[in-house]
From TrEMBL:
Lineage, uppermost ranks: Bacteria, Bacillati, Actinomycetota, Actinomycetes, Kitasatosporales
Superkingdom per UniProt: Bacteria
The NAD(P)-binding domain, residue ranges: 16-136
PANTHER family with a match to the protein in the record: NADH DEHYDROGENASE [UBIQUINONE] 1 ALPHA SUBCOMPLEX SUBUNIT 9, MITOCHONDRIAL, NADH-UBIQUINONE OXIDOREDUCTASE 39 KDA SUBUNIT-RELATED
Protein name in the entry: SDR family oxidoreductase
Length: 505
């Protein structure tokens, strides 16, 4: 077991490594010389991370005491970066149970320190008046602090970084609406913090003295209203000045749907973000600097944080995004490959077509699908499906892609998730739109016995109940237009010299 006084590198367990912060923390810990183990429900989602070969991966769920104990055994520092937000009305109870399991098992196996990233709560506001999101974050912090293991609770408000939900919400609201009628929460003062400073505090917390067990506020040097953040974002992004007027009648629920329509952030995630802005969230102290000293130039100011985030977005260097985490309620079981699938009815739509191009050219088109490149058939139908999904509270098409040309397992891709990726051969997507069943879309590049390039496409749907069967038969008449056109246009695009999307009818 590591002794904090020896200076030896601690072994760290990271939960939530497939999420926005966790996916960025792991390489920072490795760069600092720490040994890292990741506890994840689906280890395959880490396979394509550039650091996956440098960490130990353990399969498990934070609600499973045995799995948590096994993952924690032999570790010095445990990072708790998971929450059940958006899983329904019981998310607070789920968060409560998971935190208790984690704290109890950490104490049982002798973990030296727990580090938890929570939310900054407003001063002098009774906890019962907080949003469910902030209330749950605060409760999880208290549970971990009381578990008997020295714990560092870092409390942050709005995190500004490329790909964060808060940044994406701010970016799209400002860029898409030159004139805005906004909810009253745009007048609330908050203290944003750059994601780089959040990661610095997380990494530095691994070496805190054993007698330190408390919460720390972390924030940047600027205290701004949301309105001021939008105005300053526009200035940094060199946009024309924005006209912003606030109105009092937009409730958090209405606000979240408004945000969901304008930005890629779905209402289920936008609601806790907007609810958290009802009260002023400003740091009351900066004691973290006693244990994680501020280097020159830190904490990073709001304008510089936006500038850094925009640079990464424009250079397509976004390491993780808010959508890196799976959509709550999305299926987690792997796609059965046995044709005699035992899970019940399985509807399929199969298309195969010769391609006048090398397999590598076809693969470039397949891997570049979605986002700005679109889906190669009937754009209006795809757009309408995206709008319907957003109206139903789903993610819609606006999540786009993390990278314009490259995919990896676990990436979000519009309203799909990359479930399997075999370079030059197979891309399998799992649907995360609202559906009465489970759906997948497979695209393959093949070479037949005669040496010809073949494109194989398969859509699969496992219905849930009578509504699921009715859904499939109601949309199947359009498959020839949507899926048939998609196969033809992908083949045409691969045959074009530039391998760019072709016009669709």
């Amino acid at each position: 077991m590591n002794d904090e006084h020896t200076g030896a590198a601690p072994r760290c367990l990271v939960t939530g490594a497939t999420g926005y912060i966790g996916g960025r923390l792991v390489p920072e810990l490795l760069a600092a010389g720490h040994r890292v183990r990741c506890l994840v429900r689906s280890p395959g989602r880490l396979r394509d991370q550039p650091w996956s070969g440098d960490v130990e991966v353990v399969r498990g769920d934070v609600l499973d005491a045995d799995a948590v104990a096994e993952a924690l055994r032999g570790t010095d520092v445990a990072y708790y970066l998971v929450h059940a937000l958006g899983t329904g009305g019981t998310f607070e109870e789920t968060d409560r149970r998971a935190a208790r399991v984690f704290g109890e098992q950490a104490r049982a196996v002798g973990v030296r320190r727990i580090v938890y990233l929570g939310g900054l709560t407003p001063a002098d506001v009774p906890e019962r008046e907080l949003s469910p999101h902030l209330r749950s974050r605060a409760e999880v912090g208290r549970i971990l602090l009381a578990c008997g293991v020295p714990t560092t609770v870092l409390r942050a408000a709005v995190v500004i970084g490329s790909g964060s939900a808060s940044f994406e919400m701010l970016r799209y609201l400002t860029e898409r609406l030159p004139v805005m009628v906004t909810p009253s929460w745009v007048r609330t003062r908050v203290q944003p913090v750059a994601v780089r400073d959040v990661l610095r505090a997380l990494v530095g917390s691994a070496r805190m003295p054993s007698d330190v067990s408390r919460a720390f506020d972390i924030g940047g040097p600027d205290v701004l209203t949301y309105r001021e953040m939008m105005i300053r974002y526009a200035e940094v992004a060199e946009l024309p000045p924005r006209l912003i007027a606030s109105v009092p009648m937009l409730s958090p629920g209405l606000s979240s749907h408004w945000v969901g329509l304008v930005t890629p952030v779905p209402a289920s995630i936008a609601r806790p973000l907007t609810e958290s802005l009802r009260h002023e969230v400003v740091c009351q102290e900066h004691d973290i600097a006693r244990y994680v000293p501020d280097p020159p130039g830190h904490p990073i100011g709001f304008d510089e944080a936006v500038r850094l985030a925009l640079r990464r977005v424009r250079e397509a260097q976004v390491a993780t995004r808010w959508s890196s985490a799976s959509v709550p309620g999305a299926p987690s079981d792997p796609l059965p490959t046995d044709p005699d699938w035992a899970g019940g009815s399985l509807y399929t739509d199969v298309r195969e077509i010769d391609v006048d191009a090398q397999p590598a050219a076809l693969w470039r088109v397949i891997e570049g699908i979605g986002g700005e490149n679109g889906w190669y058939s009937f754009p209006l139908a795809w757009a309408l499906r995206g709008w319907l999904d957003r109206l139903a509270g789903g993610v819609g098409l606006r999540r786009g892609r993390r990278d314009a040309a490259r995919l990896r397992v676990g990436d979000s891709l519009d309203f799909w998730r990359v479930e399997e990726l075999e370079p030059e051969r197979l891309l399998r997507l799992r649907a995360e739109m609202r559906l009465p069943g489970l759906a997948w879309l497979e695209m393959r590049a093949r070479t037949d016995a005669a040496g010809r390039t073949r494109y194989h496409q398969r859509a699969l749907f496992h219905p849930r109940g009578l509504l699921g069967h009715a859904y499939w038969w109601s949309v199947s008449p359009f498959h020839a237009l949507v899926f048939g056109g998609m196969a033809r246009n992908i083949a045409r695009a691969a045959a074009e010299p530039a391998h760019r999307p072709v016009p669709t009818r």
